[in-house]
Amino acid sequence: MTDKNLFRKNALFYRGLILTVLEGLLSGSNYIVIYAVLKMLYDGTASMQRIFSLSGLVGAIFVIRLVIYSIGYTQSQIGGAEVSKNIRLGLGDKLRKLPLSGFTEKREGQYINIMTADVNSYEQILTHKLASLVKNGILSVIVIFFIGVLYFPAAVILLFSLLLLLPEMWLSFRIVGKYGKEKNAVTAEAVGQIVEYIDGIQAFRAYGMGGTKNRNTTAALRKFSTVSYQYEAHGIPVNFAFNIVNWLTVPLIMWIGFIPWQSGAIHAINFLFLCMMPMVLAKLTAAISVDMFSYRNLLISKTNIQNLLTEKEESKSKDIFSPKEHGISFHDVSFSYVEGEPVLKKMSFAIPDHKLTAIVGDSGSGKSTILNLIAKYYNPESGDIDIGGQSIRHVNAEDVLDILSMVDQDTFLFHETVRENIRHANPSATDEEIEIACKKANCDTFIRKMKKGYDSSIGENGNLLSGGERQRLSIARAILKNSPILLLDEATSSLDIENELAVKQAISNLLQENKTVVMIAHTLSVIKNAAQILVVADGKVAESGTHEQLLNLGGKYTAMWNAEQAITA
Ligand SMILES: Nc1ncnc2c1ncn2[C@@H]1O[C@H](COP(=O)(O)OP(=O)(O)OP(=O)(O)O)[C@@H](O)[C@H]1O
Fold first, then answer.
1. How far is the CA of 203 from the centre of ligand 1 (A)?
2. How many whole angstroms from 162 Cα to the centroid of ligand 1?
3. Does ipTM exceed 0.85?
4. Would you say the CB of residue 344 lies under 6 angstroms from ligand 1?
5. Which of 71, 118, 176, 406 pairs as cysteine with 296 (C-beta 3.0–4.6 A)?
6. Cα–Cα distance measured from residue 168 to residue 526, given in angstroms and rounded to the nearest whole number
7. Cα 29 to ligand 1 centroid, rounded to whole Å
């Protein structure tokens, strides 16, 4: 579906719109009935029979209106919901294609705001605002026409007051344009803060930073309420001034209608209606003015959606990527997340095919960044990365991800069953293959202890599981995917001893799968037998070699090893 098609309104929407407008127009018939009754009374032509017919007509119109309204409302709701569903699916697809480097905390708030609040606002336009605007607009024209039939000069004055909507609209659109955009940006920021607050609720509580003590969230919400107030406060005077001018037409029409009535040029009932109908028109135009104000605001949401849909996607390449062997090399690779703060500085090394290469180094030295670049989550600023002798710079990120599995510190799990979560690694895997993978990953035992075994739900992001259990499920996924390259972050330090042993056992099973493995090691004893160990420091590979070779060097690795030995002794 193209971006334009995402906004395409369906037949249900149009039917709903037409029926809602029709119902609104029928509501105007009440005034015609009142007019007829008053005229009858005044002329002395009223009879039980005529009153009976008129009341029957009112009842019949009411029933017809009720039916039309129910059908129209339901149809426009279903039609609107269908359009929102398409937009959300389209946005979801778009997010999948955006470069990961764009997913900063601030942008996440924006994306969530667009996918939820902005799409809801757009749905509001479809299901409520458009119908209300069209209905009130047509009713206003009919009222003016009716007044024109009663006394033409009054209609000219009212038409003029209706045209005042144009400058009023222009002014209020400017206000919405200025403050609405700001309000939207602040809303996105507040949403980002709220997401962070909910994600980090455990930590916030542990440090007594929950509720109003959380300064960032409180500040974002305060900013939101200030800008909301400013936005409304700027709109009120314009609306106020318009309404005053608009309502002034009521006494004005009374005055100018009185003269022809006095001279006998118009009927008394016509004069009565000349006094009454401008009030109806004033109410209608006030409603149009408020609706237009919020319609314009809701259109900002549409613009936000369109802007996201036109964001630059990760470039697609036609280059075929299917390397025969899976050694990995970095050639003078430089990279920074934040401009001017390089993490990798002209880093070069080679990872042999079918062997285990371990990466060690201080916290923050750039170990995970190396894995992120191999997985093409990010592109290097300069230098080149080869897999099997082919540069990955111009190939599609999905093609690179196809030949590797990543087991990192942040295991993401879906709110599904254990089986479904693991099957994502290989959608055609049989139940038996899933269970074999889980046995190798040391998770079969705990899965079977769960109430429904492999069919147990694991909660949102696996929150019904412990950290070690989540890591083992992620290892099971990697085993099931059976890709030639494995990127592994051995992060067992935060686990209890039982889980740590289980994860280490799962990792050692994984290492026997005869793949090209790049493993970040936080404990050196785990990687003593690695074919190569890279010691990362200051954005470069400071030392490299086997465990023995590095110990013989007597450098940084030796110091790290000695420190670890001292702790475990
Ligand atoms: N998404 C990001 N945006 C900005 N800076 C980042 C981002 N990810 C990492 N960094 C910074 O880049 C540097 C290297 O981070 P990296 O995660 O690669 O280190 P590491 O060696 O894996 O650390 P650890 O062993 O603690 O996991 C750090 O200074 C970190 O703060």
1. 20
2. 61
3. yes
4. no
5. 176
6. 73
7. 70
Does residue 372 line the site of ligand 1, with CB under 6 A?
no
Give domain limits for the chain.
1-97, 317-403+487-569, 413-482
Handedness of CA 244, 246, 247, 248 (dihedral sign): positive
The fourth-level CATH superfamily of domain 317-403+487-569 is: P-loop containing nucleotide triphosphate hydrolases (3.40.50.300)
What is the position in ligand 1's atom list of the atom closest to the CA of 491?
27
Euclidean distance between CA atoms 143 and 200, whole angstroms: 58
State if residue 337 touches ligand 1 by the CB under 6 angstroms criterion.
yes
Please give the number of the atom of ligand 1 that sits closest to the Cα of 372.
18
Q: Whose CA is nearest to atom 13 of ligand 1?
A: 364
First-to-last CA distance in the chain?
63
**Residue-wise pLDDT tens digits, 71-128:** 998 998 899 889 999 999 999 989 888 887 677 666 777 888 899 888 998 888 888 8
CATH class name, domain 413-482: alpha beta
Residues comprising the chain, all counted: 569
Q: Is 368 in the pocket of ligand 1 (CB under 6 A)?
A: yes
In single-letter form, the type of residue at position 253 comes to: I
Nearest to 96, CA basis, from 314, 270, 244: 314
pLDDT, tens digit (0-9, with 9 covering 90-100), for 416-472: 898 998 998 888 999 999 999 898 888 888 899 989 899 998 887 777 788 788 888
